[in-house]
Amino acid sequence: MAGHPSCYTFYMGISEIIEALVSFWREHTAIAIVAGLLLFIFMVRKPKLFFFLLGLIAVLALLYYFLMTFAATGVSEKKKMLEKGKPTEIRY
């Protein structure tokens, strides 16, 4: 794995996230139809609620994305420290 940082073992890129979403929508067609109808109804009947929910989902997705990125970086740094023989600090 030369030139390939170990932090990418736990890191999901945008394309993998999109592929996971597409596969979920394909496997669960009924949920996709209901979610699409609800989004359409909110968009037409209550646009304020629709954009609030859309913004909330975007913020939560961004928070989750950053959390997973930083967690993967921490795991890879801990793995490097263990390989070098440095003791890791354990807090309880």
Description:
The chain has 92 residues and is mainly α. The protein has one domain (6-84). The chain contains three helices and no strands. Helix 2 packs across helix 3. The radius of gyration is 20 Å and the shape is elongated. 0% of the residues are buried. The model is unreliable at 1-10 (pLDDT under 50).
Portion of residues in beta strands equals under 5%
Rounded Rg: 20 Å
Alpha-beta content class: mainly alpha
Main sheet, how many strands, which sense, barrel? none
Sum up the overall morphology in one term.
elongated
H/E element sequence: HHH
Mean pLDDT metric = 77
Q: Between the first and last Cα atoms, what is the distance in angstroms? A: 35 Å
Brief account:
The protein has one domain. With 92 residues, it is mostly helical.
Question: Secondary-structure blueprint of this entry?
Answer:
Elements (H helix, E strand, L loop, with lengths): L13 H14 L1 H17 L1 H38 L8
Task: Spell out the key features of this protein.
92 residues; mainly alpha; 3 helices; 0% strand; elongated; disordered N terminus
